[in-house]
Amino acid sequence: MASTLHHYLLIFFSLISLSESQTRFKPDALVLPVQKDPATGLHVTQIISRTPVTLVPSLVDLNGLFLWVNCEKHYLSSTYKAPFCGSTQCTRATTHYCNKCPGPPRPGCHNNTCGVVALNPVTHRTAIAELAQDVLWIQSTRAGSNPGPTLAVQQFLFACAPPSLLQGPLPLNVQGIAGFGHIPISLPTQLAADFGLNPKFALCLTSSPVSVGVIFFGNGPYKMLPNVDISARASYTPMTVSPQGEYFIQVSSIKINGKTLPTKQGAVGTTMLSTTTPYTSLEHSIFTAFTQFFANQLSAVPRVRPAVQPFPVCFDSTKLSSTRVGLGVPTIEFVCATGRWRGAFTVRTRWCRPGPEWRAWRLWMVG
């Protein structure tokens, strides 16, 4: 059974003046800022689009099919268009559904246009959305660190979804979902095609709500302050892509404090990578074994009861020792092995504060 791995860095295959004359500039890479929402633990980027220019806060969905936004709330743009049924844009979006809208024509509501299925990755609700196109602006870079001009994609494909699809535990003020899946009209695929970049991107997701992460599109180097190329320091593992454009890796084992978690042969395997699940989730039998194994490593630390939901086990953080990298808690590694490659993802632990009188340590998400 597939499980979901929360991650901080994965490498995949300030608003300045905008100038349409710069659209022929060949960038080394493109960048989007990304921040972590403190309430949900999810990551949000700012999409710059429309005419006049508008900032659209959008949830980052690694496995999303495309960018979709709420068009019923103050969508004003002189460059908005809705492709007709049977158009090349519809073919590119692999949709054959012809949309009909009973209301007056407006963004998201036209007859004989293409309909696509938009998904809220948190609530898993879906809705029919109108395929549309508009101008999208994005910051370019030179040599991985020097800012270049802000460039335009004149006919960027996205979808107009009903506002009801944004209901649920989403970050405040989010107006859309930015899909990064491996399909023809996802955000990275369209950017690579429009600017002639290699079809790959990198997510550097911050673990702190007060810090800013970044998403790179195209070739490295991917430089962060102080002039560090993170692509040169990263570990790599082979990846597979599902027919739906979702990203997976093969996990051969799980280690806690360097000791391999005992599981049934073949129990650990195909693992989905996700940015819309704030905690790692495991198949139930693996999770049960993991919880017991992990708790044994912290047997000297008192537990807090009742545990903070949805977590079955919490520990008193005031009884934990300190190290130079944080609290003295067991390390968790997901070991990947394919052929001659072998590496590990180290999973960091998280905090929760259910009340001012005490603090508990979040162990793991229910599998």
TrEMBL record:
Q: Which residues form the Xylanase inhibitor C-terminal domain?
A: 246-338
Q: Which GO terms describe its molecular function?
A: aspartic-type endopeptidase activity
Alphabetical list of InterPro entries matching this protein? Aspartic_peptidase_A1, Peptidase_aspartic_dom_sf, TAXi_C, TAXi_N
Record flagged with keyword Disulfide bond: yes
Could you tell me which residue ranges the Xylanase inhibitor N-terminal domain spans? 44-219
Signal peptide coordinates: 1-21
Query: In the UniProt record, does the keyword Signal occur?
Result: yes
Give UniProt keywords alphabetically. Disulfide bond, Signal
Q: Name one GO biological process term.
A: proteolysis
Q: Which SUPFAM superfamilies match?
A: Acid proteases
One Pfam family here: TAXi_C
The family line of this record is: Belongs to the peptidase A1 family.
- In Swiss-Prot or TrEMBL terms, this protein is called Peptidase A1 domain-containing protein
